[in-house]
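Thread: quick sanity check before group meeting

JM: Hey all, I'm pulling together slides for Thursday and realized we never actually wrote out the predicted structure for the chain we discussed last week. Dropping the sequence here so it's in one place. If anyone has concerns about the input, flag it before I start.
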Amino acid sequence: MTTESGTPEPVGPALDDTIHHPTRLAVAAFLSACDEAEFAAVRDCCQVSDSVLSKTASALEAAGYVDIRKGYVGKRPRTWLSLTPEGHDALTRHLAALQNIATAAQNAGARARTEPAGPAAPPSDS
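JM (edit): ok, ran it. Output follows.
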């Protein structure tokens, strides 16, 4: 987004619909800690099937968040996944937005605990 003057608006914490899905979030978080990971390592860590990880990686790649590289180790085909700089930024903003939501809820809960309750209900005539 840009302002009326044509300068880019600062991008702050915001939930990201692409990363918000639990499997995509787990994959992005895993990949954020390494330069590149083999498909099987990501699959095993995220505890998903090959087909689920394949669909997840494709969705993240379409968003520009993941690079998929195919090659061979010996004669065996392999696939490696890596988080792009855009993916790192999106994950960071998404996690910050989640933290903001959690902090706001905790602060509201703390205020509710310390504020006096509303007027007491009149006693019933039972």
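AS: nice. The chain is about 50% helix and 15% strand. Residues 30 and 42 are 7 Å apart (CA to CA).
JM: adding both to the slides.
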